[in-house]
Prior knowledge:
Helix content is 50%, strand content 12%.
Amino acid sequence: xxxxxxxxxxxxxxxxxxxxxxxxxxxxxxxxxxxxxxxxxxxxxxxxxxxxxxxxxxxxxxxxxxxxxxxxxxxxxxxxxxxxxxxxxxxxxxxxxxxxxxxxxxxxxxxxxxxxxxxxxxxxxxxxxxxxxxxxxxxxxxxxxxxxxxxxxxxxxxxxxxxxxxxxxxxxxxxxxxxxxxxxxxxxxxxxxxxxxxxxxxxxxxxxxxxxxxxxxxxxxxxxxxxxxxxxxxxxxxxxxxxxxxxxxxxxxxxxxxxxxxxxxxxxxxxxxxxxxxxxxxxxxxxxxxxxxxxxxxxxxxxxxxxxxxxxxxxxxxxxxxxxxxxxxxxxxxxxxxxxxxxxxxxxxxxxxxxxxxxxxxxxxxxxxxxxxxxxxxxxxxxxxxxxxxxxxxxxxxxxxxxx
Length: 404
C-alpha cells in the first residue's frame, strides 16, 4: 500500500484494466477505489470476452435483450454500456474531485473498424451519445486510418482514449491528431476542453523479442520505449503549440501506460508498475498486477523527462538485429488483429448464450409472461432473474417452469 501512495503523491494515476459484472456488483471495484486509489477503468474486447465467458451474470441479460432483429454486436454494446455506466457512477466522485482529470471509463469501438476512418468516427459519436456519462472515453485505435477519426471525434467534442500505440512515433502522430482537433475547436469558437489519453502498450515489446536477444537485454525493450515516449510527451507539453492551446482552455492529453502486466513468468509480477513511475501519467493495471502492487509493490527510479539512457539501450538492440520502427508497425498490426480475434470470439459467445445448450437448457428470455405454460412464475426483479439461470428448461417454444 505504501507504493500506491508513493505513485499517487508522485502524480501518477492508477486505473484498473478490467471489468466484469461480478466486480461491479460484489463491491470489489468500490473497494479498489477506496483502498487501492484506483481512479479510472479501461476495457478492451479481450477483457469483455473473458468477462462473459467466465461469469454466469450475463446470460439472462443476453436472453432478455435478444430479438430476431438484433445483432450480437448490438447486444454486446448494450451489455457493455450497462457495465460501464455502473463503473462510471462509482467513479463520478473521483471525476468531480479532480475536475475531470481522473475518474474515466473507456469503451472501444468495434475493432473491425480499425482501418475504416468514416465508420470509426460514426461509431465513436454514437457510443459517446449512448454512454451519456461525462466521464466516458471512447477508445479509437491510433492506426493510420484511425488518426483522422480521432481528430474529427475530438472536434466533435467526443473524449477519446487513443489505443494501440506502440512507439514514440505512433504516440506523436496520435498527439498531433488530438491537437488538430483541439485547434479546430478553438478556431471555431468552441470550448477546447475535450479530454483525451494516449495509451502506449509496453509488455508486447518484450514478448516479441523474447529468446532473440542476449540475456542482459531481457525485459528491457518495453521500458526503453516507454522512456523514449515519455521524453517526447514532456517535450510536447513544454512546446509553444500546446501552450497556445492551453492558454485557450485546452487540457493536456495524458500519456497512459497500457499492457503493464508481466508476460514473462520468470520476471517480477510488478516489473512494469515499478519501472514506469512518472509524473503526469496513468498506469492501467490488470487486476492481478494491481493486487500484487498493493501487496508487495515498490517504486523504482522516477522516469526522467530526458529519457535517461534509453538511446544506448536502443543501440544495443539494433546491434542484435532488432529494427524498432519495423517492429512497432508489426506490433500495432498484430494488436489490431488480436482484438479482431477476441471480438469475433466475443460475438460467438454472445450468440451461444442466446441459444439452448446441448442439454436443452435455456436461459431466461423475457419476464414471467414469457413462460406460456406456467401459472405461477414469480415476478422476480432483474437481479433475481439473473440468479435463476437454468431454472427454465425447454425449447424456444413454450417454456415449462421447473424452478423454485
